[in-house]
Amino acid sequence: MKSVLAIRHVHFEDLGVFADLFAQSGYEIIYREAGVDDLSAIDPLAPDILAVLGGPIGVNDDAIYPFLRLELDILRRRLVTARPTIGLCLGAQMIAHALGGRVYAGTQKEIGWSKIDLSAAGKHSPLRHLQDVPVLHWHGDTFSLPIGASLLASTHITPHQAFATKNALALQFHPELDPKNFERWLIGHSLEIAVTPNVSVESLREDCLRYGASAARAGQNVLTDWLAQLS
């Protein structure tokens, strides 16, 4: 059976609606918990797909969280061989860094539901399914575009929202979110919500009810197309 190895940083930021689609496509899902499991035991080339998930820490926090260095090493060794890799939020930033990009604090935190602006390349990529679909954003850091990467999407706050290289897809937003589990996000990020201007549990919950189902369907369509184009 084909396998997806997902490196998870906090339990509620999992593969979400991507998990069912991977299973339906014949993939076994294996989670490895950052900070708990021995990431040095991972063979970077063994999984058919490597997924690096989100979390409330940053790429540049490696002195505090040394396991980030192991993740970056895994990504560098994998990306150089063009093995299929997907990064979500923190995972996207780590892919950017592993490819030589710079990860840094954005001009402001981007938390909430809004549309992305697709580039010309994005409109001809799997992200075309997200045209005019509000998606969940939840990040403070962002990244420079790695050399040779194709920019797929932006927002007015974050110029680099998504990019692709051969067999790798980096998405700073969260198309994987399962709206049924969004309450876990609101609990897990309660402190960040409380100190972020113009963001509230009530507004995030209300917008999830409004946009979550359509974003999940579009996100699954993105993953379906990406899987189909892997070489």
Strand order of the largest sheet: 2-1-3-4-10-9-8-6
Terminus-to-terminus distance: 18 Å
Helix count, per DSSP?
7
Query: How many structural domains can be distinguished in the coordinates?
Result: 1
Average pLDDT figure: 97
Query: In the CATH hierarchy, what is the class?
Result: Alpha Beta
Description of the molecule:
By secondary structure, the protein is an alpha/beta fold. The chain has one domain: Class I glutamine amidotransferase (GATase) domain (Rossmann fold, 3-Layer(aba) Sandwich). Helix content is 33%, strand content 25%. The chain has an eight-stranded mixed beta sheet, sandwiched between helices. A two-stranded antiparallel ribbon has the order 5-7. Helix 2 packs across helix 3. The two termini are 18 Å apart.
Helix/strand layout:
Blueprint: E1 2-8, H1 17-24, E2 27-33, E3 49-52, H2 67-79, E4 85-88, H3 90-98, E5 103-114, E6 117-118, H4 120-123, E7 135-143, E8 150-154, E9 162-165, E10 168-171, H5 182-188, H6 190-195, H7 201-229
Parallel strand pairs: 1-2, 1-3, 3-4, 4-10
Antiparallel strand pairs: 5-7, 6-8, 8-9, 9-10
List keywords for this structure.
231 residues; two-stranded antiparallel sheet; 10 strands; 33% helix
Brief account:
It contains 7 helices and 10 strands. The protein is of the alpha/beta class and 231 residues long. A hairpin with a 2-residue loop joins β9 and β10 (168-171).
